[in-house]
Design a protein that fits this description.
Layout lengths: L3 E5 L5 E4 L3 E5 L6 E2 L13 E6 L2 E6 L6 E3 L2 E2 L4 E2 L5 E4 L5 E7 L5 H5 L9 E5 H4 L4 H5 L3 E7 L5 E5 L6 E3 L2 E2 L4 E2 L5 E4 L5 E3 L8
Parallel strand pairs: 3-4
Antiparallel strand pairs: 1-2, 1-11, 3-5, 5-6, 6-9, 7-8, 7-10, 10-11, 12-13, 13-14, 14-17, 15-16, 15-18, 18-19
């Protein structure tokens, strides 16, 4: 499972994340929310740390004061390693990377690939490993993958009890999917990765 541990240098507070997208900012919906005096230079949606097959990367989200790693301004996706120092603005909150893992979540490897050969596919217990922990998290009909009018892959939650998430965001309507997107059934349920988009032979 993806794992990231950040430590706030000013307070020593540890922040642990086990989701593929970690948002930093003043927005209450952020994974790590900054408030008070330290947040004066922090934008509402300041930066994101994203987990991919290549490890953890930091991306600035167009913040007004920028994001720095080890004193260098972030201009693209910057890979992170243990010991790196993240600064939100030159004088804003500073975090150090205390621990990272680069492995894809085990739940991904445990489940076979699901190929779409129809215009709609429902994600059920049977498709996602309906036994054990997954059974308590995954609804009988949890989510549905469909092909949109433009030919793109779409997902919607089917009224599941624990929700469906794409890259850490809860699915609230019909959402287009992109290559590399992480689909999670429930906050801690099975994880599916979009590994191919196109027409099956």
């Amino acid at each position: 499972m993806p794992y990231l541990k950040l430590v706030a240098l000013a307070t020593g507070r540890s922040i642990e994340a086990r989701e593929p997208v970690v948002r930093l900012g003043r927005d209450p919906g952020s994974t790590i929310v900054f408030s008070g005096d330290e947040a004066n230079v922090v934008s509402a949606r300041h930066a994101e740390v994203r987990h991919t097959s290549g490890g953890w990367h930091l991306v600035d989200l167009g913040s007004r004061n920028g994001t720095l790693v080890n004193g260098a301004r972030v201009t693209g996706a910057v890979p992170l390693k243990v010991g790196d120092k993240i600064s939100l603005g030159d004088s804003g909150p500073k975090l150090t990377v205390a621990a990272v893992t680069e492995e894809v979540a085990p739940t991904v490897a445990e489940h076979p690939a699901i190929e779409m050969r129809a215009y709609a596919v429902s994600l059920l217990h049977a498709a996602t490993g309906g036994a054990g922990e997954a059974e308590a998290i995954v609804s009988r009909v949890h989510a549905e993958l469909t092909i949109g009018q433009s030919g793109g892959l779409m997902i919607r939650d089917a009224g599941s009890k624990n929700g469906t998430f794409v890259n850490g965001d809860r699915v609230t309507g019909l959402l287009p999917l992109r290559l590399g997107d992480h689909i999670t059934l429930g906050r801690s349920g099975p994880v599916l990765i979009v590994e191919g988009l196109g027409t099956a032979p």
